[in-house]
């Protein structure tokens, strides 16, 4: 086991629930315009109103967050509310921004409040049915792209949630096909909506299959299997930040008494699905990266097990290659 500082056309398996296939192009997102609303409420006035909802109309912190809310719900650049303060706010932007500010006032995480999360070059829809994609997970996509020479064959994203990893691979890689699986039907509704947002030329065909891994993809042959699985132990759950505990889905977070149950199952099951030379790439809890790497290394069907670090130097990923041994 080493340690690094850097970081054929499948068919849906019988019994797998096909939730969505990428089909139509994304609908254009609503943008702020000059349409009058609320007595010609200006964008600047809207920002002040939202800052008041958030706590204080005069505090710079709440005004900054209010501007971020307006920019996000308007699908506009971050500086846009400041540079267009005198413009009239679109009715739809006003309504969505007020809803988001009220949600923030109740403590909802920003991404859920505005219904959006950035992941690599994608802007994804998110709500409480899915984990909010984390910045460190973006690196997992780089690892897969690099290990597969930019992508080829089938890539499977186990526990796809919002579809973040699957859709990044589908839009950035040269995979023939990408499959995202999840045990949560609710999550796959969100993933399917995101697939519709990013569908277009150059995007690999992507589908989302419902079921506990590996049932939905049994019988497929993959060049890459990637997962950011749940990896918090039951005992650790109480130490999670309150915003995570209160708002994010437990099925996306918790993995048994030791936090390793889902990871171990993915390692065990993926060897039968990966092609020889295929890549397994896992996000892991930094406290258990060594344990995860040992699970993979003990399995003779894998070779080249590497623990990789995130940009802060924490051990956060384990990668390996499917060997020729059965
Ligand atoms: C940590 S979240 C990751 C979501 C997304 N891939 C991301 O990185 O933002 C884990 C996901 O795995 C799903 N999941 C949990 N157990 C699973 C299982 N046995 N099989 C498939 N998916 C599972 C959860 O529903 C959740 O969406």
Please tell me about this protein's structure.
By secondary structure, the chain is an alpha/beta fold. It has 2 domains: 229 residues, Rossmann fold, CATH 3.40.50; 74 residues, Helicase, Ruva Protein, domain 3 (Orthogonal Bundle). It contains 12 helices and 11 strands. The protein has a 9-stranded mixed beta sheet, sandwiched between helices. It has a two-stranded antiparallel ribbon with strand order 3-4. A hairpin with a 2-residue loop joins strand 3 and strand 4. Helix 1 packs parallel to helix 4 and helix 2 crosses helix 4. The chain is elongated, with a radius of gyration of 21 Å. S-adenosylmethionine binds next to helix 7, strand 6 and helix 10.
Q: What's the structural blueprint in terms of helices and strands?
A:
Elements: E1 2-4, E2 17-21, H1 43-54, H2 60-73, H3 80-83, H4 91-105, H5 110-114, E3 116-119, E4 122-125, H6 137-147, E5 154-158, H7 164-172, E6 177-182, H8 185-198, E7 206-210, E8 222-227, H9 242-247, H10 250-253, H11 261-270, E9 274-283, H12 289-298, E10 302-309, E11 315-322
Parallel strand pairs: 1-10, 5-6, 5-8, 6-7, 8-9
Antiparallel strand pairs: 2-7, 3-4, 9-11, 10-11
Residues 131, 133, 137, 158-162, 164-165, 181-184, 187, 212-213, 228-230, 251-252, 262 line the site of S-adenosylmethionine (SAM).
């Amino acid at each position: 086991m080493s340690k690094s500082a850097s970081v054929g056309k499948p068919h849906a398996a019988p019994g797998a629930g096909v939730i969505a296939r990428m089909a139509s192009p994304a609908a254009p997102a609503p943008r702020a315009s000059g349409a009058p609303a609320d007595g010609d409420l200006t964008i600047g006035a809207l920002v002040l109103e939202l800052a008041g909802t958030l706590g204080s109309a005069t505090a710079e912190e709440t005004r900054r967050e209010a501007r971020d809310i307006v920019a996000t719900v308007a699908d506009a650049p971050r500086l846009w509310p400041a540079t267009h303060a005198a413009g009239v706010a679109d009715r739809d932007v006003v309504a969505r921004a007020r809803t988001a500010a009220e949600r923030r006032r109740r403590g909802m995480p920003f991404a859920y409040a505005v219904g959006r999360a950035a992941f690599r070059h994608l802007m994804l829809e998110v709500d409480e049915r899915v984990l909010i994609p984390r910045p460190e997970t973006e690196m997992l996509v780089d690892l897969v792209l690099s290990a597969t020479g930019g992508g080829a064959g089938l890539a499977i994203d186990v526990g796809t949630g919002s579809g973040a990893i699957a859709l990044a691979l589908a839009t950035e890689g040269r995979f023939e096909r990408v499959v995202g699986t999840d045990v949560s039907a609710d999550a796959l509704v969100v993933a399917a909506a995101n697939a519709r947002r990013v569908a277009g030329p150059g995007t690999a065909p992507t589908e989302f299959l419902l079921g506990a891994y590996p049932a939905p993809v049994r019988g497929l042959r993959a060049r890459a299997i990637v997962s950011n699985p749940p990896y918090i132990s039951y005992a650790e759950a109480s130490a999670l930040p309150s915003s995570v505990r209160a708002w994010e889905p437990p099925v996306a977070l918790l993995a048994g008494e030791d936090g390793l149950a889902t990871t171990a199952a993915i390692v065990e099951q993926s060897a039968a699905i990966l092609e020889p030379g295929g890549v397994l790439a896992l996000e892991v809890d930094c406290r258990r990266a060594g344990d995860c790497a040992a699970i993979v290394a003990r399995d003779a069907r894998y070779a080249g097990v590497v623990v990789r670090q995130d940009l802060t130097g924490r051990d956060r990923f384990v990668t390996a290659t499917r060997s020729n041994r059965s």
